[in-house]
Amino acid sequence: MTRKYNFSAGPAALPDEVLKQAQEEMSDWQRKGLSIMEMSHRSDEFVSVAEQAEQDLRDLMQIPTNYKVLFLQGGATSQFAMLPMNLLRGHSAADYINTGIWSKKAIAEASRYCDVNIVATTESDKFCSAPTQEDLVLNPNAAYVHYTSNETIGGVQFDYVPQTGDVPLVVDMSSDILSQPIDVNQFGLIYAGAQKNIGPAGLTVVIVRDNLLGNPLAATPSMYDYKVHAEAGSMHNTPPTFAWYLAGLVFKWLKAKGGVETLAAINLRKAAKLYAAIDQSDFYGNPVAIRNRSIMNVPFTLADARLENAFLSQAEAAGLVNLQGHRSVGGMRASLYNAVPEAAVDALIEFMVQFEKENA
Amino acid sequence: MTRKYNFSAGPAALPDEVLKQAQEEMSDWQRKGLSIMEMSHRSDEFVSVAEQAEQDLRDLMQIPTNYKVLFLQGGATSQFAMLPMNLLRGHSAADYINTGIWSKKAIAEASRYCDVNIVATTESDKFCSAPTQEDLVLNPNAAYVHYTSNETIGGVQFDYVPQTGDVPLVVDMSSDILSQPIDVNQFGLIYAGAQKNIGPAGLTVVIVRDNLLGNPLAATPSMYDYKVHAEAGSMHNTPPTFAWYLAGLVFKWLKAKGGVETLAAINLRKAAKLYAAIDQSDFYGNPVAIRNRSIMNVPFTLADARLENAFLSQAEAAGLVNLQGHRSVGGMRASLYNAVPEAAVDALIEFMVQFEKENA
């Protein structure tokens, strides 16, 4: 077996060690004679897996006890509706910051349930930056303020946490959760699709302050009511048990690696190297404002776009895969999530230098 | 490794061969150097897996071309809301048949969106039977008629498909899909959580006639709109890729076994043996009307309930696991899904005979 270096934006690379453990115990978990997939979610075995995963995530992110941690289905796209359905709480409007494609999707869905006030947008900048705190024109009567901490497609990341006073701050952290330390107390609700930095697709993690629960819109389906899930320990119905188990293995791996602080240092180093390689050359380019360059998703272009196909096919032949940019923007993109080793970035840079030499 | 005989009601047993293949290619799918979990859902590789799974399911169930097959998240519990949200289409009422715990959950959620007319209930019979066609008092103006073809907890299965004239028939087939041949044309919509007869938890299959799509209630979240998923090939957002892949392996396994007809013959034989063993003894009992005895879930009691713990612990020691009845009803339950081999049933019967000898 030769494992490739995988720069996929999501579903994305998982740690080799995690896949190896999942493989070893696939048919026989902990000598129980069953796969973890074949066990009732209410069995002692699975409940212990589920509780340990939650505890490990709480440890990794230092999640305070007045926050619930939910393991849900449906992806961030389901959250786009669940947010207004649960968090309006009698308000008629919510504030949204628009920094790109994922912000826009969140805004479009929320607009079906309330008045959406765009408190800042970088669309005129072709979404190549994030607004500053001073740019935000906040509505003190908003139910909440929503932003996307890292735009996976544009490669734009906030370099600060917006300050919103008494209005709860809500963040789509799908592509940068667990990549660097944060203070959970600054947020009312954090959500993340698992398939980037947590585990396989089909799991969504929600971290929500408990005083925001319990006042959903009348038409809210039971499965869209955070409180229903919180009270049932995310087992209102059968949860995605294998994805939850695998996320738990990733959390254990993160702890063994030294936790989020250690990973953050590695992530910063990985990203800095790659941006330096891009900046040192006129052959490659990245359009994002320096202060907002994502440490997780690095889009880049070739000065001569006609070379893109050659770049991608030669990279693939060199064992560097899934470097194609999102279909909506083109170009290249290297996603550098926690599970992408520094050696992968080194190999990519080496390839880029060589490709430039041969094609410049 | 010693694999146990697993009678879990769900998440449930998976075929040994399927787990073995998933294990072998866990870190390196088809020599691509990546896990199938680590690939974009829009990659050629995953799209081929997804399309093949759909085609194999279409072949197995002979699904007509005017039906869409959707691979969704959220379980049957999400369907309980999606049904009225999508299928009312201007109607104000829907018909529901009540045969037990799962029917009741579907009814409770639908009641939040429309007038629910209970067209028949077997509650006075303690849910130990299903109503006959003659028992059904149907409303010709109902948006649809809903029933649960097999009550997983009660072990009650319909022995016919209700005839509803021009009103679309909707069925929760979570625990008996693919267990016996059906004529899809008799249904407007079929749904099933995967974690019993299809694959791992976290995937829900919906088979829906295309003329029922496209008129959801105003408050319906995008992710609850069947048409949105149908038009996107179930990739409106990132689907649960590993669960979809694993379901595909199960469909291939079913085809290799000879398809649904072959499995149905085995399933009937497995169930008949176990019911015969129960009926031949006063030591064991099953309260369900003979014509409605489920071929998938066989609940049974001991004449002396004080022996239940001994039965369960000795069964487990003999390699027969997850025989405890649902916490809401107690007693024992053996779920005999497709992946439970006939040898497991033989071993269970042998154990039951021996246990009776020692304890009667």
UniProtKB/TrEMBL annotation, chains A, B:
Its EC number is 2.6.1.52. NCBIfam families: PRK05355.1, serC_1. InterPro entries: Aminotrans_V_dom, Aminotrans_V_PyrdxlP_BS, Pser_aminoTfrase, PyrdxlP-dep_Trfase, PyrdxlP-dep_Trfase_major, PyrdxlP-dep_Trfase_small. The keyword Transferase applies. GO terms for cellular component: cytoplasm. The gene is serC. It is found in: Cytoplasm. One of its GO terms (molecular function) is O-phospho-L-serine:2-oxoglutarate aminotransferase activity. Belongs to the class-V pyridoxal-phosphate-dependent aminotransferase family. SerC subfamily. Keywords: Amino-acid biosynthesis, Aminotransferase, Cytoplasm, Pyridoxal phosphate, Pyridoxine biosynthesis, Serine biosynthesis, Transferase. Pathway: Amino-acid biosynthesis; L-serine biosynthesis; L-serine from 3-phospho-D-glycerate: step 2/3; Cofactor biosynthesis; pyridoxine 5'-phosphate biosynthesis; pyridoxine 5'-phosphate from D-erythrose 4-phosphate: step 3/5. Homodimer. Pyridoxal 5'-phosphate binds at residues 76-77, 102, 152, 172, 195, 237-238. Binds 1 pyridoxal phosphate per subunit. Pfam families: Aminotran_5. PROSITE patterns: AA_TRANSFER_CLASS_5. HAMAP family: SerC_aminotrans_5. L-glutamate binds at residue 42. This is Phosphoserine aminotransferase. It catalyses: O-phospho-L-serine + 2-oxoglutarate = 3-phosphooxypyruvate + L-glutamate; 4-(phosphooxy)-L-threonine + 2-oxoglutarate = (R)-3-hydroxy-2-oxo-4-phosphooxybutanoate + L-glutamate. It comes from the Bacteria. Its main location: cytoplasm. Its cofactor is pyridoxal 5'-phosphate.
